[in-house]
Amino acid sequence: MAERTFGFRTRALHAGGTPDAEHGARAVPIYQTTSFVFKDTNDAANLFALQKYGNIYSRIGNPTVAAFEERIASLEGGIGAVATSSGMAAEFITFAALTQAGDHIVAASQLYGGTVTQPGRDPPPFRRGYHLRHRHRPR
To answer: Looking at beta carbons, which pairs linking 53-59 to residues 24 or more positions away fall under 8 Å?
Structure first.
């Protein structure tokens, strides 16, 4: 039997989540926790070494964010997605992934101030040395 392909509206509601086996709830719960329990020290070591997928600390990721990322990837036709907590964080990971020392980024002159100053303020391990070149709109 062929695997069923769900439509956009169904995926918007259900992608990234599975019904709760214990309670039967359909909606993804909001996990309001900062930390997670490990089976033992070996389990913790594997998680922190990124040898095993799982949750360590909510600022890194949690089941609620993972479900959101899976849902966005499904809706956009991607193989994955990354959620950030701010627009500046999203800009940083984009610039860090796509640029290297000496690169130039062409951008509108009306950018948010933090976007303009970010290239020179990256922490040293991530410093790229890229420059924003402003394109002025003709009047």
So the answer is: 58/31, 58/33, 58/34, 59/34
DSSP strand pairing (131-135 vs 104-108): parallel
pTM of the predicted model as reported, rounded to 2 decimal places: 0.65
Domain segments of the chain: what residues?
Answer: 8-76, 87-135
Rounded alpha-carbon distances, angstroms, from residue 3 to 6, 17, 71: 10, 17, 18
* 108: phi then psi, degrees, rounded to nearest 5: -65, 150
Residues 64/85, Cβ–Cβ less than 8 Å: no
CA 80 remoteness from chain centre? 9
Range from 13-22, 27-36, 56-65, 121-130 carrying the lowest mean pLDDT = 121-130
